[in-house]
Amino acid sequence: MSAVVRLHNVHKSFGSHKVLEGVSFEVGRGEVAAVIGQSGSGKSTALRCINALETIEHGSIDVCGHAVHDPKLDRRSLRRDVGIVFQSYNLFPHLTVEQNIMLAPTCVKALPKAKARELAREVLARVGLEAKAENYPEQLSGGQQQRVAIARSLAMQPKLMLFDEVTSALDPQLTGEVLKVMEDLARGGMTMILVTHEMAFARKVASQVIYMHKGKVWETGPGSMLDAPKTAELASFVGSGL
Amino acid sequence: MTYEFDFSALLPYWREFAWGALLTLQLSALSTVLGFILGTLCAIGRADGPRWVKFLVACYVEVIRNTPLLVQVFIVYFGIATLGIRVSANMAAVIALVVNVGAYTSEIVRAGLESVHKSQLEAADCLGLSRPQIYWHVVLRPAVERVYPALTSQYVLLMLASSITSQISAEELTAVANRIQSDTFRSFETYIVVGVIYLALSFVVRIALGLFGLAVFVRRRKLGTAL
Amino acid sequence: MPTFSLVHLEFLGWAALWTLGLSAIAFIGGGLVGFAVALARISPVRGLRWAAIGYIQIVQGTPLLILLFLIYFGIAILGFSEVPALAAAGLGLTIYSSGFLAEIWRGCIQSVPRTQWEAAECLALTPWQRMTRVILPQAARIATAPTVGFLVQIVKNTSLASVVGFVELAQAGKLINNSIFEPFTVFMVVAAIYFAICFPLSTWSRSLERKLNVGRR
């Protein structure tokens, strides 16, 4: 079994509003999957389901050997394997960059402080922010904060990284520096699923593009599928320049 | 009006005044620390506890905030005695003050907890932190930091309100003053002096809590943002 | 040994009326003085401003109990021997309330957005018109909830009036207890009466606050 993530016929609704109506896809080890679609297509919800931030009504989700749909799921052990980065960074404002990164390794993995600090410097170097270790989040630009958020997830050495519209809140010039970090990660062999509006990035980096529409997977394929859409919906989505 | 002020009669008592001030500081410091712990636990219970805990905390807060401290002091001091348990006046004073300030703290800290964004909890949860870890590392400090000015005011009020415990003859500044004025018959002067001491104490407490805040909330100190 | 009975309850009922009366005096007196102090506190005249700050700091920085002692003995010094306890208690609570209400209301007046002051000025309103027609109506809306909330503090603090010889609810409780020595019952009943007065006020204050927040959103 090579799939790290497998969604099968996933259904989810908020009240009477159906958000996911039978979503299925697989992401293999080392793959980069880009989930695209209009807002309201259910793509972010699908991502949140993978990390058990939402509970699903029907179907199955297997992530790194965890049965996420199982009510008896050990969420904390799932979260050791899965890192997630949010649109709004969600750094802890009262902690320095370094403390933000050290928190989970010391709390969850009981790593000694010195070890954790070493680790923090290491992941900060990977996102190019060693110099900002002692700063507080509010002293950083949005792009830098997002890179710290990525580093914070990396410090837990996850097997899978989820990115939920991580550049949507950023200016175009700050978007570039974050995408660069993600591209480096992809090249390093990290399994990644990203919900994104960055078509160029999806086309270039993703090994699999998943187009979602009205709570369903409408079309999947390699990055090149964006150049030759099979369905009218994807064609108009790509054509709209989103 | 022929009254002649005579503060010199009080001079020999300066030791007593100082001692009283110290007792008041001790009493309020102890009540503040214990009240903060009680109040914070209640705030967490009310924000995140099971239904019956929420209900109990809500009742506790409402009952305390809507009855006078003086009556609470009487209930603790005389009430506990009727249950056959002997408590000293000082002990009763501490209990009453802690229970009282705990209720106010709980409401203030609750507002702080509510100001911490849900996404912060989600992020910590996704990093694999347990519920207690999340509260300790991610929620509590920013929450208390945000409401720290309100807490400071509340604890200054507590220090002043501790004078009420003189009504059961607990050992503190006002009780000391009551004794001195009956010794010297210089009542007005005595209470003027004590009033000035309380005023000074309220400044001292405010400054001390401010410094404490700067020591605890490192970010505020480093970034120079006001508390 | 007599026990707690209807007679005592009736006595407490009368005392509760005195508590309400004293609270009303403190609120009206404190409101008048406090409003003047609040205006002085934001006045362009520096001396007035500092006097107001000093007054507020002193009232908020000393215990009400000490203030009441000072009034009690001060009246004796001034040579009035026949001042009714109600007047002494009313004076003390008026001073106390004014110090806090002044600060609450100052905050409310200043929380009216700067642009409103400027707009009023640009319309060539006099300072008096500006205050009464533009600022105060808006400030009053903001001030209602915390003012009602402070009423609760006033009611509770009337319990200290016994030190100037005024018999209100708490003191009545103490007197009854001295004769029958059932402190737990007596003070629980006393507390319940205070609660019955204060809780509706607290609830009202909270609902006013909620309405204001909704209106602002």
Furnish the topology, listing elements before pairings.
The complex is a heterotrimer of chains A (242), B (227) and C (217).
Chain A: E1 3-14, E2 17-28, E3 32-36, H1 43-50, E4 58-63, E5 66-67, H2 75-81, E6 82-85, H3 97-108, H4 113-126, H5 142-154, E7 160-164, H6 172-187, E8 191-195, H7 199-205, E9 208-213, E10 216-221, H8 232-239
Parallel strand pairs in A: 3-8, 3-9, 6-7, 7-8
Antiparallel strand pairs in A: 1-2, 1-4, 4-5, 9-10
Chain B: H1 14-48, H2 51-65, H3 69-82, H4 89-115, H5 118-126, H6 131-161, H7 173-184, H8 187-216, H9 218-223
Chain C: H1 6-41, H2 46-61, H3 64-77, H4 85-110, H5 114-122, H6 127-157, H7 169-180, H8 183-216
Helix pairs in contact in C: 1-2, 1-4, 1-7, 1-8, 2-4, 3-4, 4-6, 5-6, 6-8, 7-8
Order of helices and strands of chain C: HHHHHHHH
Domain count of chain A: 1
Report on the biggest sheet of chain C.
Answer: none
Compressed to H and E, one letter per element, the order of chain A equals EEEHEEHEHHHEHEHEEH
**Percentage of residues assigned to helices of chain A:** 25-40%
Instruction: Name the assembly state.
Output: heterotrimer
Q: For the record, give the distance between the C-alpha atoms at the N and C termini of chain C, rounded to a whole number.
A: 61 Å
What helical percentage do the residues of chain C reach? Answer: over 70%
CATH class of chain C: Mainly Alpha
Classify the fold: give the CATH topology of chain C.
MetI-like fold
Specify the structural class of chain A: alpha/beta
Rg value of chain A: 18 Å
CA-atom Rg of chain C in angstroms:
21 Å
Secondary structural class of chain C: mainly alpha
As for the CATH topology of chain A, it is: Rossmann fold
Overall residue-averaged pLDDT value of chain A: 91
Features:
heterotrimer; A: 242 residues; alpha/beta; Rossmann fold; 6-stranded mixed β-sheet; 4-stranded antiparallel β-sheet; 10 strands; B: 227 residues; mainly alpha; MetI-like fold; 79% helix
Structure summarized in a few sentences:
The complex is a heterotrimer of chains A (about 240), B (about 230) and C (about 220). With about 240 residues, chain A is of the alpha/beta class.
Can you walk through the features of this model?
The complex is a heterotrimer of chains A (242), B (227) and C (217). With 242 residues, chain A is an alpha/beta fold. Chain A has one domain (30-41, 80-239): P-loop containing nucleotide triphosphate hydrolases (Rossmann fold). Chain A is built from eight helices and ten strands. Chain A has helices at residues 43-50, 75-81, 97-108, 113-126, 142-154, 172-187, 199-205, 232-239, and strands at 3-14, 17-28, 32-36, 58-63, 66-67, 82-85, 160-164, 191-195, 208-213, 216-221. A six-stranded mixed β-sheet of chain A has the order 6-7-8-3-9-10, sandwiched between helices. The radius of gyration of chain A is 18 Å and the shape is globular. The two termini of chain A are 35 Å apart. Chain B has a single domain (20-223), classed as MetI-like fold. Helices cover 79% and strands 0% of the residues of chain B. Chain B contains nine helices and no strands. Chain C is mainly α and 217 residues long. Chain C has one domain: Orthogonal Bundle (MetI-like fold), CATH 1.10.3720. Chain C is 82% helix and 0% strand. Chain C is flat, with a radius of gyration of 21 Å. The N and C termini of chain C lie far apart (61 Å). The chains are: A alpha/beta (242), B mainly alpha (227), C mainly alpha (217). Chain B binds chain C through residues 1, 3, 62-63, 65-72, 74-75, 78-79, 81-83, 156, 160-161, 163-164, 166, 174, 177, 187-188, 191-192, 194-195, 198-199, 202-203, and chain C through 57-58, 60-67, 69-70, 73-74, 77-79, 152, 156-157, 159-160, 170, 173-174, 177, 182-184, 187-188, 190-191, 194-195, 198-199, 202.
